[in-house]
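Reminder to self: tokens first, then the designed residues, so the page reads top to bottom the way the pipeline ran.
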């Protein structure tokens, strides 16, 4: 009799800004007896009532996930990463991972940064409320009000991705390179008006790999991050500036 161990890794995609259906994943895990590893890099610190991530957001017991991992360099503005699970799993990950042998310890400054950020979230839950309100306000200025772009991904995600609408791409016959050029012009126009945004950047294609073998590639998009440090008036003004920059750049292309 052959015994196999099956692992399913569940990632929160920053390029798609969508979240996994963790409830369904857990139901499948319990039915088919596999281990579930959840990457919370882009959900920990912003999702859930207290920022504990996708499990809190979906109101599921985190103990049903075998391993929760994530980077501390995203929403916590630090460095390194974390692994949460049973004592046996964490001990194995700490001692047996390649970073234990080939990497240096996290600098004290970055470790303190992560620790202090988590403490701030615990002591000031209103920070997340403000962030969610600002995310909604920013999205409202962009997605339903622009005739040229739409916002992809989860509504709760403070990292918004704006892609050109399909009809805009078809009408102007824009290829991938042309879309990237248009989006960069929008970035430049917004910056000239005092609002800093960027384009979504992905990994370049591997050398010597044919186009048909390159696999999935992210769609050209603008990346806009909402901030809880701004007032609602400031975030709405920023959204208006971005929307006008889109209209100015795309509107002049025939």
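Designed residues (254 positions):
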């Amino acid at each position: 009799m052959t015994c196999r161990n099956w692992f399913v890794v569940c990632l929160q995609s920053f390029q798609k800004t969508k979240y996994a259906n963790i409830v369904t994943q857990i139901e499948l895990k319990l039915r088919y007896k596999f281990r579930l590893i959840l990457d919370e890099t882009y959900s920990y610190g912003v999702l859930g009532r207290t920022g504990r991530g996708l499990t809190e957001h979906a109101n599921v017991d985190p103990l049903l996930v075998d391993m929760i991992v994530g980077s501390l360099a995203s929403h916590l503005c630090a460095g390194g990463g974390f692994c949460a699970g049973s004592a046996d799993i964490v001990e194995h990950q700490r001692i047996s991972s390649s970073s234990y042998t080939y990497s240096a310890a996290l600098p004290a400054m970055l470790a303190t940064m992560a620790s202090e950020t988590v403490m701030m979230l615990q002591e000031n839950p209103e920070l997340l409320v403000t962030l969610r309100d600002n995310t909604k306000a920013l999205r409202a200025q962009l997605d339903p009000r622009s005739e040229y772009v739409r916002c992809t991904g989860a509504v709760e995600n403070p990292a918004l991705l704006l892609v050109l609408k399909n009809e805009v791409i078809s009408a102007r016959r824009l290829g991938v390179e042309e879309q990237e050029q248009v989006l960069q012009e929008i970035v430049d126009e917004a910056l000239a008006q005092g609002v800093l945004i960027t384009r979504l950047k992905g990994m370049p294609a591997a050398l010597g790999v044919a186009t048909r073998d390159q696999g999935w590639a992210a769609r050209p998009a603008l990346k806009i991050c909402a901030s809880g440090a701004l007032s609602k008036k400031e975030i709405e003004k920023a959204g208006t500036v971005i929307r006008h920059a889109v209209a100015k750049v795309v509107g002049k292309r025939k």
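The mean pLDDT is 85.
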